[in-house]
Amino acid sequence: MQILNRPRRNRKSTAIREMLCETRLDVAQLVYPLFIVDGNGIQDEVKSMPGNYRWSLDLLLKEIESCIALGIQQYVLFPAVEEHLKDNIASYSYSNDNFYLNAINKIKTTFPQITLISDVAMDPYSSDGHDGFVANGQIDNDATLPILAQMTIAQAQAGIDIIGPSDMMDGRVGFLRQAMDKEGFVNTSIMSYTAKYASAYYGPFRDALDSAPKAGDKKTYQMNPANKMEAVREANLDESEGADILMVKPAILYLDVIQLLKQNSNLPIAAYNVSGECSMLMAAAQKGYLNYEAAMQEMLISIARAGADIILTYFAKDYARLMKK
Ligand code: PBG
Fold first, then answer.
1. Whole-number mean pLDDT of the chain?
2. Pocket flag, ligand 1, residue 205 (CB < 6 Å)
3. Of 38, 91, 134, 188, which is least packed with CB atoms within 10 Å of its CB?
4. How far is C-alpha 266 from the geometric centre of its chain's CA atoms?
5. How many Å lie between the centroid of ligand 1 and the Cα of residue 272?
6. Assembly ipTM
7. What confidence tens digit (pLDDT) does each residue in 84-93 have?
8. Looking at domain 24-246, which of 3.20.20.70, 3.40.1380.10, 1.20.1070.10, 1.10.12.10 is its CATH number?
């Protein structure tokens, strides 16, 4: 048979396939999300997120040590706060005896070489369960910014490397940049949740933190899943306000948005492979419907192929283990 072009020639051996591989994903590009609770000796599995735990600081330090041994150098830390510490102004987020701030300090003094990223939003500390300040049933954008700034300065003082504003208030990147610069934290970076969608796929995360909204939803601040040009507008704003890294969230359902921001910005693009995306794969694997290792690697490589430079994923540890083999 006369067939001039035979693409299969470029797939004929493992060596050739590896040579011609267009996308590679290094463990150095992964950020591992971890949940922390106050207390001692706690390793409490999140029911809707098999293999993920709420850790107390003592055990979290051991967990991070074992992840460092696998090559993971980037971590994003989320606090699960007891209900009685929550109020409508999220005052616990910047209080002196806050266990999350204390943990940031301890983790960074124990492992100064790693990158530690925070979450900046009111929801883990808010009695309303919203990312912004609630007044008369509405999210008050401008009243939220000073609260986020107090939270940010407290995290910067504790030694965080990168703050991660996930609240989607207008103007917050510039406001937080200015607040940090004024206090002398010019080297503390901002990874902005630039295109954060109002997604059903955050459900397991809200179980982990008990942070679901008490009333209403997040649609007046998080983006409509139907939109993508709006993501470019958000990216332009965050860039002009001083963001160092832009993020798209969720990841696998928004690969087109990742690609769009990669093409429209010179900043590094992060993608958050969120709790629901990971949990649905885990659930299918536990039922025997999918092969966990293969499906997980394919999910991560698809996010990198779309243009993500950095991936926040609950699979980071398992991926790092696989790469060691
Ligand atoms: C809170 C925040 C959320 C996530 C990260 N930061 C939840 C939300 O906006 O309701 C979700 C992460 C995940 O689902 O893995 N500001």
1. 97
2. yes
3. 91
4. 20
5. 9
6. 0.97
7. 999 999 999 9
8. 3.20.20.70
Q: 159 to each of 79, 112, 325, how far by Cα in Å?
A: 16, 10, 34
Both tokens assigned to 242: 């001083």
Confidence of residue 211 (pLDDT cuts 50, 70, 90): confident
86 is catalytic: no
pLDDT tens per residue across span 51-86: 999 999 999 999 999 999 999 999 999 999 999 999
Report how far ligand 1's centroid is from the alpha carbon of 173 (Å).
18
Q: What is the mean pLDDT of residues 114-140?
A: 96
Catalogue the E-assigned strands of the chain: 30-36, 43-45, 53-55, 74-79, 115-117, 133-135, 138-140, 162-163, 189-196, 245-249, 269-273, 310-313
**In one letter, which amino acid is 225?**
P
8 A C-beta contact, residue 246 and residue 192: yes
Does 287 participate in catalysis according to the annotation? no
Please identify which of the residues 106, 182, 228, 249 carries the catalytic annotation: 249
Give the integer Cα–Cα distance in Å for 33 and 271.
Answer: 13
| Dihedral pair phi/psi, residue 250, rounded to 5° | -65, -175
Cα→Cα distances 193→117, 139, 222, Å: 12, 18, 10
What is the atom index within ligand 1 of the atom nearest the CA of 312? Answer: 15
